[in-house]
């Protein structure tokens, strides 16, 4: 991750890569259910189809905030790829989430409101764990920059395995996957915040979801340290884990989600923080 | 320099007296002029600051006046306590009077300066005079709409300037005896403010505020007593205390001073007075929360931070404030009244400021100063806005604000920016929070004792969780007041009174400008102040596109991009209008009824009493640790 | 760039039950399941009119549900197609002539494909949707123009399709083309 050309290419291609991951995910999920599943490029077909739909919005502020969400998320991903400050990255991601939550609240749509409320709750669920992981990483490398993790000679995974477990536990919240997909919950709140978007404005929100994949899998990749192959293996395993989990679990309600994240994932991350602080591993 | 500084004390007093007699139109002009002058003086003072702090003495006669004033104030408090049959009020005041009388007899006499104006005081001057000035101008209109006699309106304005004078004096005072007087003056002023409406609830809450702040006064007296009777400290002034502390090694006076600060800062268990202060007219809340009353807490801790840094007292303060940070945030989740939510979030953020002040490393102090400044401006904006919501739109509860974005888009925009500015990049309050987390992480990595490591890890978790709870709170509150229907696509800002509009615009522009000017403000404004506090330089340097402060790096490009995205983006979102795009109704399963919105309701009241008990334990802990050391 | 060909590659479905007996609904859900797997055509049951292309309707359209039906239909952005699933939806079926419903869904909104059967089999639904996708691909921007239908009373029961008697106001009196 030290080549500037690679970085810029990655940033530019991030949405496309994310789309591919999403396509692969749908394929893998279908295979897990013994289905054939859609083609790999299905997300891009969706993308192109939406470009041609009639443009319909609820009001301009709402539509504009959707675009802003995409831009700010891309920016957070860019900073992550460039290896910026970990805590800043988490808060930049929070910024993009804040924008979409505001968008959800800005209409008078019940489902949109419910989705935004639930998104805010899920921020509470995953954000502390992420920041604790970031601080553990500081204890390990002596720098808050993610680039120090990318450059770590000994893979970060072996140094903080518990942080990786904690990350795995909150990833479903962040990716809105079952069992922690309350904020999207198609059967309950019809997609939550993204409900009121349609046509070309929905593309921004739809593509932002692809960017979220990149964001999350980069976090996972980070645990491989300088060893790119280990990182990729971790990403692949996480990918399978997320999809298997998504296929095999039912949705829990937001209270259960919050309780799980704060009482299980957070203590694990905390123990990891203590271990790195005392230099046990 | 000294005469200019003294003018900061005299001018508000003169204005305060004049306002009592002048007619309305003249009062308006005078208020605006006084605000401009005071702000100008404070800015000039900061601009022309020297390397050395300014010290000056006052004639000996003033000592006697101060003593008499002290007793007069205490007599007033005792009288109020008797009249309203509140044993706590008069009991505490009588106790203070006794101690003060005893101390006055034993006060050592020496040649020393009563006033000591360093960069921290200059920093406070700017915050106090500019922000409180804006509040004074705002009150011109606000108090006009209040149901009370014309004299009480004048009296209200006059009290604001009295408050400004007391605060200016307090931030310049070096002598603890003087400091005690000004401390009591702010207490009395807040008492008068809170009972301004003269109904039963106001009177009750005013008395609560009075007795709670009396404890702070008592603590200062305790500090004076220990300073006098501990061999080695000698005269009770801040500068003496700070220079002598390492040799004497007794930190009980600092523990007392810290308690005085924490009481003013409404930390648990003393949070009740600040939340009770909501019954007063809104400018009072703005004044108490943003720039004056509660900011005494971080101010005192900042002042004594070199002496307590690294001692167990600091550790207990840090634990207390970390706990209050998360507890107040959780307490706020159950509230519905807009002002109460703001009050709880003030307590939480104050806890963070005090925490950073107590940590006392260069970055921590810078973070504390940034939090003080940006929190002051943002909270002032939010509170004044709450006043507008109350008077213009008649909305007090957040659950009744669902139509705010339709009737008052400008007001709802201000609320949005105000909340975001306390939470998200690139705003100053966020950077303060960010620095806090990184500093605590750095310290956790640096200390060697296992016990301290465990504590610092716990504190980190509390700060992180508290921050997340606060963000949930802001989203929850904001969510109920920014929704509008598709028919209101074209945003037309509501018409507000010029005074309202002017003050809100000023504060909004200040927040935005200060945010964009951060790369210059940090080295030019916050770092010098921090350097005076920690008595050594704060290394600030530009390295490429990053501003490095000690060991924390502030990358500028992400900050600028975040600035374009967040404040500008959200403001632009109000004005952008897509043409040639059809409008559709919101999806509601095809139903056509209009829905009422509510947010999640959190029942956290059950936990609140335990917060108070925990707070009491911590306060006892501070004293105990201070005594044992 | 012609984007028409992508429409049939990613048709998102909105499923609306207009007062049916749930028989057809179960068949539709069976389509989504592993056995019939319509996701291989890129279909998703989005449940959200604002992002859907194909509207699958079941049930005879009771009086309670027709306003909701029209409202949801109007929230779907063009190009869109409507597939009436099941006999009741096509003609009213066994409910025809009852006090609470009129004869079929095309009394209220234009229907592109009728899938008969009680309940219609999954194979039939898939065939119907594939048929509908051919129509979807050929729809033009013309349909995005709003057309208001004249109100004309139902004179007798044999007027099944109200579209034939509806004349557009802003189209010079010519019969409207819904695609």
Task: Give an overview of the whole structure.
- The complex is a heterotrimer of chains A (281), B (629) and C (179).
- Chain A has one domain.
- Chain A contains twelve helices and one strand.
- The relative contact order of chain A is 0.16.
- With 629 residues, chain B is mainly alpha-helical.
- Chain B has two domains: 236 residues, no CATH class; 304 residues, no CATH class.
- Chain B is built from 24 helices and six strands.
- In chain B, a hairpin with a 2-residue loop joins strand 3 and strand 4.
- With 179 residues, chain C is α/β, with parallel strands linked by helices.
- Chain C has a single domain, classed as Rossmann fold.
- Helices cover 27% and strands 12% of the residues of chain C.
- In chain C, strands 2-1-3-4-5 form a five-stranded parallel beta sheet.
- In chain C, helix 2 crosses helix 5.
- The longest helix of chain C is centred in the C-terminal third of the chain and has 17 residues.
- The radius of gyration of chain C is 16 Å and the shape is globular.
- Chain C starts with a helix and ends in a 41-residue tail after the last helix.
- The interface between A and C is medium-sized, with 31 and 24 residues.
| Main interface by residue count | A-B, 65 and 70 residues
Largest sheet of chain B: 3 strands, antiparallel
Q: How does the major sheet of chain A shape up?
A: none
- N- to C-terminal distance of chain B: 40 Å
Cα-to-Cα separation, first versus last residue of chain A: 25 Å
Q: Could you give the order of the helices and strands of chain B?
A: HHEHHEHHHHHHHHHHHHHHHHHHEEEHEH
General form of chain B: globular
Helical fraction of chain A equals over 70%
Helix-residue proportion of chain B: over 70%
N-to-C SSE series of chain A? HHEHHHHHHHHHH
Tell me the strand order in the biggest sheet of chain B. Answer: 3-4-5
Strand content of chain A: under 5%
Radius of gyration of chain B: 24 Å
Helix and strand content put the structural class of chain B at: mainly alpha
In short, what is this structure?
The complex is a heterotrimer of chains A (281), B (629) and C (179). Chain B is mainly alpha-helical and 629 residues long.
Structure characteristics:
heterotrimer, A: 281 residues, mainly alpha, 12 helices, globular, B: 629 residues, 2 domains, three-stranded antiparallel sheet, two-stranded antiparallel ribbon
